[in-house]
Structure formats: C-alpha cells, structure tokens
Amino acid sequence: MLVEGTVSVVQEIKREDAARMMNPPVCSRHLQLYIKLAALFLDEFESFYNPNTGGLNYRTKLTHLHIPILQRLRAAVWANGFSHTERDLAQNPNKYRGLTDEYSNSSTETEVQSKSNYQRDEEEIPRQTVEA
C-alpha cells in the first residue's frame, strides 16, 4: 500500500534557544514576558497559560512557529511600551499573528510601518524607528 501526502515535522525549541533566535537576541526573562503576554490574548499560546497559578506552564514547549509572533510582540513593546502593546493586543490580536503586515523586522532596526494595502484617512500615520 502506497501512502501519498506530506508530513510536517514540528521541532520543539528550548526557551533559551528561542531567546537567541529573536532578532536581536533577548534574555530568557524578556522572552517569558512576551510568552505570558501572548498567552493571555492569543489562541496559539493558550497552552502556555496555567489557570491554577495565573502564570506560565513551563512544560509547554515552543516551536519555530511561535518565533515570528514573539518577534512581532517584541518589536511592538520596544516601539510602544508594554502597557500600550498589551491594550493593542487585546483589541487587535490578528495584527500580532501576522494576518496584517503591521510590523517588519530587520537586523539592525525595527520599523513600525503603516498599512499600504488600505486607503488612509485624512491623518497621516507617522513612521517610527527604534534602534537596537
């Protein structure tokens, strides 16, 4: 019997390795803050939240699929601050899932880009640059 199709292998990553994979690298404590923030509002990180303790479930493993979302969160926290990013994440979680291209990361700087696909209102959205 011949089985056709594709197989997707998801490799688990240690949190220390995930922190080093961020661009620029962050420490493990900062990564845990980003994971906790994502666990509160994003379905992809729901398994990281422990409702009994109100903190993180340390048995849940990261995968390479989590890194882009954490990267967007890090960029937003650097550009706007933690509390503003938390409010923004609660109101518009799709922006951080990558369903809209709001944040773009390069190796030396993080730019907050305005949406180019949609027509703008009367006011122009300023472009902000945060250097690492």
Characterization of the model:
This protein has 132 residues and is of the alpha+beta class. Helix 1 packs across helix 2, helix 2 crosses helix 3 and helix 3 packs across helix 4. It has one domain. The chain has a three-stranded antiparallel beta sheet with strand order 5-6-7, covered by helices on one side. The protein has five helices and seven strands, in the order βααβββαααβββ. Helix content is 37%, strand content 14%. A hairpin with a 3-residue loop joins strand 5 and strand 6.
Task: Throw out a few tags for this protein.
single chain, 132 residues, alpha+beta, 3-stranded antiparallel sheet, 7 strands, 37% helix, 14% strand
Brief sketch in words of this structure:
The protein is of the alpha+beta class and 132 residues long.
The Rg value, from CA coordinates, equals 17 Å
- Count of strand segments: 7
Structural class: alpha+beta
> N-to-C SSE series?
EHHEEEHHHEEE
Overall geometry comes to: globular
Could you list the spans in which at least 5 consecutive residues all have pLDDT below 50?
100-127
Write the layout of secondary structure elements.
Blueprint: E1 12-13, H1 15-21, H2 28-41, E2 49-50, E3 55-56, E4 62-63, H3 67-80, H4 82-91, H5 94-97, E5 103-105, E6 109-112, E7 128-131
Antiparallel strand pairs: 1-4, 2-3, 5-6, 6-7
